[in-house]
Amino acid sequence: MPLTDEELAALPLSPAGRLAAEAMLADQRLLRAHDLAPSLNLIHDCQPDPAAGPVPTDVTSFHVDSAPVEVDTWLCTYLGACSEGLANEDARRKVEVPEIRAQLLMEYGGADDEGFAEFLHEHSYDSHYAPRPGAQPYAFGRFALWRIATRWPGSPVPPCVHRAPVNRPGNLACC
Length: 175
Ligand SMILES: [Fe+2]
Prior knowledge:
Elements: E1 2-3, H1 5-10, H2 15-33, E2 40-41, E3 72-79, E4 84-86, E5 91-93, H3 98-108, H4 114-122, E6 129-131, E7 138-139, E8 146-149, E9 161-163, E10 172-174
Antiparallel strand pairs: 1-2, 3-8, 3-10, 4-7, 4-9, 5-6
Bound molecules: fe (ii) ion (FE2).
Fe (ii) ion (FE2) binds next to loops.
């Protein structure tokens, strides 16, 4: 549900929530001053799906954002647990893990060919990552507005692997 500046400013919030909302409004002003068009959406329930298959595709799973054109993701946490990142060398695409790929092939019901690659892409399975053994995710922290790289054709840098915190009452994050 879209949330306007006025609605955000009028929300009944705790002092910490008010601080977060004020920072969110200020960040939106900053983004608009850079000719960007931020929009806020109110999402109440951003939980992992317990019935998801071998590659859950919700935002609490490590993933990269992708687009057919050049674009960045702006990410910030304002209250509660913050988003996390994973260095590219610490991340492995889940579709490249043999056991997971085998399960996805069964779901696809065909050969490991171009059609399968398309299937993986259509379902965003190819955008999700598993931490390699011993990997240490890093925290983005709160109130820092991050500009992170996405996957788009021709991007000169690898995309940033990241995940949102599991939504709990009192959290206020956006990306
Ligand atoms: Fe994302």
